């Protein structure tokens, strides 16, 4: 795998636009069409927001004298795939216990949207939470496939 991006940003919700745009620009550079780029933008946005709200909430950013928690983002490519990894310092969660997407609560659909937009989504819970999302580089759009 070739690393295209490897960076960390403070766990601040205001950084979501920067992260989404940075990853979307790189996805476009490697050949994804606009519809697939928007799916990637959706997935990285959801993963980043979850990392900020859930993975980094154990410390109030900078209020207790400690360093602000960081969210790490890595973008890798193979000839067939784009792989995005989002890592935070949180304790993780149980993907099986997430509410169904038709649940009427105001939150709780981020993982559902990630899975809808990407071809593969996996989680690892070692030294924080790692979300790994894969999009096949065939240019196909999952939204188009499901319609």
Overall description:
- The protein starts with a strand and ends with a helix.
- 33% of the residues lie in helices and 26% in strands.
- It contains four helices and five strands; from the N terminus they run βααββαββα.
- It has 147 residues and is α+β, with helices and mostly antiparallel strands.
- It is globular and about 35 Å long.
- Strand 4 and strand 5 form a beta hairpin.
- The longest helix is centred in the first third of the chain and has 22 residues.
- It has a single domain, classed as Histidine kinase-like ATPase, C-terminal domain (Heat Shock Protein 90), CATH 3.30.565.10.
- It has a five-stranded antiparallel β-sheet with strand order 1-2-3-5-4, with helices on one face.
- The mean pLDDT is 86.
What are the defining features of this structure?
147 residues; alpha+beta; Heat Shock Protein 90; five-stranded antiparallel beta sheet; 4 helices; 5 strands; 33% helix; 26% strand; globular
